[in-house]
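Researcher: Going back to the complex we discussed earlier. I've cleaned up the inputs and rechecked each line, so this should be the final set. Can you rerun the prediction on the complete assembly and write out the structure?
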Amino acid sequence: GQGIGKRSISLASTSMAAPPAGIFPPRNILIVNKLRTDPVVKAIDELLIHVRSTYPEVQIYAENRPDIPEGVQAWKPGPSSPDIDLVVTLGGDGTILHAASLFSKGAVPPVLSFSMGTLGFLLPFHIDDFVKSLEAVFLGKATILNRMRLTCTFYDKDGNRKGDDEDRWQVMNEIALHRGASPHLNTIDIFVDGQHLTEAVSDGIIVSTPTGSTAYSLSAGGPIVHPSLAALVLVPICPRSLSFRPLVFPRGSVIRLQIGGRSRASAGVSMDGRSSLVLDPGDSVTVHASPYPVPCINRSSIVEDGVGRGAGREEHVDGDGKQVGG
Amino acid sequence: GQGIGKRSISLASTSMAAPPAGIFPPRNILIVNKLRTDPVVKAIDELLIHVRSTYPEVQIYAENRPDIPEGVQAWKPGPSSPDIDLVVTLGGDGTILHAASLFSKGAVPPVLSFSMGTLGFLLPFHIDDFVKSLEAVFLGKATILNRMRLTCTFYDKDGNRKGDDEDRWQVMNEIALHRGASPHLNTIDIFVDGQHLTEAVSDGIIVSTPTGSTAYSLSAGGPIVHPSLAALVLVPICPRSLSFRPLVFPRGSVIRLQIGGRSRASAGVSMDGRSSLVLDPGDSVTVHASPYPVPCINRSSIVEDGVGRGAGREEHVDGDGKQVGG
Amino acid sequence: GQGIGKRSISLASTSMAAPPAGIFPPRNILIVNKLRTDPVVKAIDELLIHVRSTYPEVQIYAENRPDIPEGVQAWKPGPSSPDIDLVVTLGGDGTILHAASLFSKGAVPPVLSFSMGTLGFLLPFHIDDFVKSLEAVFLGKATILNRMRLTCTFYDKDGNRKGDDEDRWQVMNEIALHRGASPHLNTIDIFVDGQHLTEAVSDGIIVSTPTGSTAYSLSAGGPIVHPSLAALVLVPICPRSLSFRPLVFPRGSVIRLQIGGRSRASAGVSMDGRSSLVLDPGDSVTVHASPYPVPCINRSSIVEDGVGRGAGREEHVDGDGKQVGG
Amino acid sequence: GQGIGKRSISLASTSMAAPPAGIFPPRNILIVNKLRTDPVVKAIDELLIHVRSTYPEVQIYAENRPDIPEGVQAWKPGPSSPDIDLVVTLGGDGTILHAASLFSKGAVPPVLSFSMGTLGFLLPFHIDDFVKSLEAVFLGKATILNRMRLTCTFYDKDGNRKGDDEDRWQVMNEIALHRGASPHLNTIDIFVDGQHLTEAVSDGIIVSTPTGSTAYSLSAGGPIVHPSLAALVLVPICPRSLSFRPLVFPRGSVIRLQIGGRSRASAGVSMDGRSSLVLDPGDSVTVHASPYPVPCINRSSIVEDGVGRGAGREEHVDGDGKQVGG
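Model: Rerun complete. Updated structure for the full complex:
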């Protein structure tokens, strides 16, 4: 998806956030990349040299993969791993989504994202600006946009949790239920705050965050929601009823989607574009705002031309570390 | 407009509201009707008889019109008029909008609205239930949904206020700018919180409340916004650019619409469906959430079948008058 | 899908049609039903009794299934089977689609369709009217609406036909390509009359007939096309580009959809709601108007209340059999 | 409006057309321009010099305006004016629409249109190519796309023609009825081929040609219709009912729009973007395909890079003048 909001809406931080994880100035930095293309490899090399010389006290980590750069320590999610104070991503929006998914059980450290070329929807910095960007972060000049995530919990027809009890999903863009390859439409009962809203007959249902409102939700006909508004967007995919229009709910709403008992199709679930489980008739998922947003470091406070500069409503990452540190 | 949300979304009160005007239990009741059809005349007669016998201490007022019912005192907006504790409307949604407009300068008393037949979008009570409804109000059992209004202020091209300095408009559904009978499209610069968002070339622009999201805004392609979410919806009318999609902003946003200096068309302004002034190139209007919502008495707390019953998040109008009283 | 057109647009026959198969008055009638519910069994029984007593010279056939009614001859598609002069369907729209699919290789006999209750989109007769309807057909009073079909031919990446050489598909509603359960969007190159129109990145693409324009195509945002207009409707499903809008092409157009070589997703194909093959990157399908429409007997000439009565432009099934006979 | 179709759909001629007016090779050329900007003045000067030296037998005309170029003869529409064999326009799409309007009573000569810079939706030639373009026309190498027009006739509530009896309007893009500055919605009864289709409650109704399907109609949600398909597109503007979707009718359809007797708003009429009369409750307009399309000389046969080259279905303007001459 793409939209008017992608380049022109200024990003102001939300007030809903739990404080981000990590301390200030950052001690442990996690580098996240999905691809190992030449530009990415080169950018990581330069970044490592720069950080080691400029911020020698910093420990650098990367995901535990065969291609981990020399001198970088392996890191994986889990309680015994070192706490991360800053995540640096190199790549596109998908890399940011992946980084967020590494902290799917709790608070996410501030994320400083660099694109390798074209600017993504999530408004990263260009890699050529990495020296200036890191400096802003270490000097406490960066501001944060807390991007809302959704917590998704799955249940079988008897109301038992599906999957590991620890296993609640956090999504940054959207959760989508879709009939997939089934020739039949889904019948999905939608409940909001415990009340039955409607029985939707459609290809599927999207519940998106404001961040995700410019992605799949937009393609399906949804509105663009300012990222500083805490809201859930529910959009039907090719609904049979023309009067079933996109809906916007307040942050506190709990949306439950239950595959109708008489639905002829199961629903595949995809979260942030990754397929996961399948919901059979009677199964359900509840979706509500996550207590753990993704604190994205905001380009507006660093880029000097004022692109995306917020209207004085951004939280400041000041020297005493109240915002990103603490 | 009409939509899925009209009958099925439960109405929970918002937390943003200034306390409604009026005291509890109500002493001064204002009856508002637009038409004097036979059913309305008959209903007012029955209502008067019932109120006089059941709540003899109550004073009853009506707008100062030639057809004012016998024994009812004339009332008009203004600082020297008696304070109203409860507004009772008889008619459709237009009557509720009219009632709200009588309090366009400040706080609105709680509104108890009766439809004469078909149920309107604003979820009134049926007139046949008036005895039970009034009883609930006087017993302090009614709950309130504070419906957000928009404050609209107009400026000429030099930045001077257009119209009386006192004259800020409060709208309950939407403000719409439209080229009207002009053969040329409007060019409108849209600013949000002081930043230029886009230059829109279109038939016009709608800014609606959540309440208005099921009215004109919906016909123009906007989403349905839950009335308990405090948000502004901006929807272009027949925009030339297909990528200009409906936008949802947080309550705190200030939207400014300025007719482009090179716009070949002026823009007529209509607020809640009533035409008012015309904006010429260079003129502008600012729109933001009003501090004075309309406190609508909520059917959910009274109707026993639970239709529209909120999920425990409604403010209660309790005996000590904290909610509707003062 | 549903739409304004379903009940209110009058159905006039198209001029594009090959003459329907069959002779007049009908000698061989094929009964088609999908379900064997009690109402269907009862209706078939009554129909058999009526036809045998009223039109004793008629032979009655049914598909060769275990539950074939007593005294009815088994029939299956193929060159050695008796020619059918009239198809009678009992059921919903799906039953009409199924009946049409039995004649997927060539001309279709006139179809007289009865619904068992609710009226479908394809405007069948109610089963209670079967005596009057059959009489109209045998008296040559029925009129025909030739509903366009689409011929679909599949190719692999080397341009070789996929499947049996005889195997061209005829669809009455639509062909849809969809990414199915893939997490990735389809990239589909669209060619019209040999020219590259665009590269579509989307969930999928629908090509529908005017008949199908009130079904899936409508849910995806397509227009309603009058069934007497010979046209192909191309509608993207959740396209990434907001400027990719539904397109309407003339009857003579040849549309080719080719899965992009760099598409990360294959495309599942469904035709009239039935899933069939999968197209991998490089594979393609060509779609054009079939020479064999489905000649549907038109309710307008029989139902006396004038619902759906055409504006004098329908072909008449007259006594010398030019239209349905021949 | 803008759309995918504007640059990429190839333009093939339609078969519906009456033969264009004019003889071949052209004797009388009418130059049409709206503005007298420096580039236009300079282009006309160069064109005049070129035509006088290369085609000395040709007479050159222009509209009778104060700024008519020296040596050019004044021309105005009317039976006593010389017949025009070729119209040359210099300007944007509006200039082409204006040129077509000069022949609003009958056949239009072939139109060769030049843009002064950006290419318009109606696919003109760039002015820098005028030598080559004229040569193609005079050599009989140009092909024609007959763009359908709509004939609009207005009636009062008693069924009497409104306006001059001669006065039937020909529109090339669309006719739009709109409530204009009225605060009330229009109620419009829509009849197709004499049958009542629906009562539309909306801001207005558009009936567009395929040419106009990428203009206002597109902004209001209509599909893009290939210009070689003869069809009428009916699109509601902000309809109150979400199920009232765009409709496509065959060329032979007669659409009648009648302002409802109970409509609270009159409807302003604009045709090709020019406002004209007002229709009061009871008044109506009938719209059907005009017998006089606009024969636009097709860039595809001249531009050598093949942009827009039709798939072998274009009529050729051959030496014996059957197509543009005759």
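Model: Worth noting: Helices of chain A lie at 5-8, 38-54, 93-101, 130-138, 216-219.
Researcher: Good, that matches what I expected from the previous run.
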